[in-house]
Amino acid sequence: xxxxxxxxxxxxxxxxxxxxxxxxxxxxxxxxxxxxxxxxxxxxxxxxxxxxxxxxxxxxxxxxxxxxxxxxxxxxxxxxxxxxxxxxxxxxxxxxxxxxxxxxxxxxxxxxxxxxxxxxxxxxxxxxxxxxxxxxxxxxxxxxxxxxxxxxxxxxxxxxxxxxxxxxxxxxxxxxxxxxx
Length: 181
Ligand code: IMP
Ligand code: MG
Description:
Elements lengths: L13 E5 L1 H18 L5 E7 L3 H8 L6 E12 L2 E10 L9 E9 L3 H12 L4 E9 L12 E5 L5 E2 L15 E4 L2
Parallel strand pairs: 2-3, 2-5, 5-6, 6-7
Antiparallel strand pairs: 1-9, 3-4, 8-9
Helix pairs in contact: 1-2
The site of inosinic acid (IMP) has 17 residues, from strand 3, strand 5 and helix 3.
């Protein structure tokens, strides 16, 4: 069967929400706070793939604490809408037992993905777990979840760029944008 073509929204419909400079300034401030809070400790920074990877790469380069990295991959979105079900695609490579873990996510929407990760890390005996989220769609929350470090609060609109995709398009945009209907 011929695969269904995936729509790629054209550039004219893409409007900037957060500029590169604004994101850079915010990431530096978050990194400074995290570095202060974890001073003298060894930190494990977990990147939630794939969307969180650009934010993660920028953040860890600004951290002044000794850190190791790990990756976890989950899926909850189907196109532009949340499926309501979180699937673990690939788990951490190292055990989080006895470690201070910081989860780095691109965006919290319903809260289900972050909640799933928090539960899993607690079950595996992490010493402490905090969350660092670049974007928070506060009004879309379906389940309460703790955000310890937040970049920006954003409206309940589908956003792309700086790691975030629309059907695997536009992850490489250097800024964050919305798609106009
Ligand atoms: P949640 O489980 O509903 O909180 O959704 C979290 C995941 O869905 C995020 O890690 C993103 O990968 C994806 N997601 C949620 N909202 C958006 C969006 O506006 N643009 C791109 N991805 C999104
Ligand atoms: Mg994500």
